[in-house]
Amino acid sequence: MDQHFSGLTKLGFGVLACNSVLAIYNSWGDATSVSLVLLADAALVLLLLCLREFEQDGGRGREDAKIKAAVWALTTLLTAMFASRVAPVMPPAVGAVVWVMAVATTAGGFWAFFLNP
After folding, report:
1. What is the pLDDT of residues 8-46, one digit of tens each?
2. I want to staple 95 with a disulfide (CB 3.0 to 4.6 A). Which of 52, 76, 78, 87 is the partner?
3. Which of 75, 27, 44, 102 has its CA nearest to residue 35?
4. Is residue 2 included in any domain, yes or no?
5. How many domains does the chain have?
6. Which residues cross the membrane (predicted)?
7. DSSP H helices in the chain
8. Burial classification of residue 74, based on how many CB atoms lie within 10 Å of its CB (0-12 exposed, 13-18 middle, 19 or more buried)
9. For residue 66, what are the domain limits?
């Protein structure tokens, strides 16, 4: 597997790293927020690596189902993390809409990856 990343990918990682350092600095002392930033970063990096592996394989390998499952799980994790932080600061009705959209997105992703012929 070729491990070279494009300049745009490297720039994206740099922006992610800078943003994460600033987010951790601003939330220092709040273990939940710091953990959320670190977990989201790890999930994003893993998601990028999974998508890269899928693209390099051309969608024809034996590992496609495992890669799709990993991509779906990581995107579901990120969606749930986002909703769990956004919904509580919204009015209750809007918070409910945030969770409904998160569930709909997760279900739609599952359908697209695994049930769509």
Report:
1. 888 988 999 999 999 999 998 889 889 999 999 999 999
2. 87
3. 27
4. no
5. 1
6. 7-25, 31-49, 69-87, 93-115
7. 7-26, 31-57, 64-86, 92-110
8. buried
9. 7-115
Of 51, 108, 43, the C-alpha closest to 78 is 43
For residue 31, what are its two tokens? 């273990």
Q: Determine, yes or no, domain membership for 46.
A: yes
How many degrees, rounded to 5, is the angle at CA 43 between CA 41 and CA 22?
Answer: 10
Query: What is the number of alpha carbons within 13 Å of residue 22 lying toward its C-beta?
Result: 6
Burial environment of residue 102 by CB neighbours within 10 A (0 to 12, 13 to 18, 19 or more): buried
pTM: 0.82
Q: Tokens 């809007």, residue?
A: 94
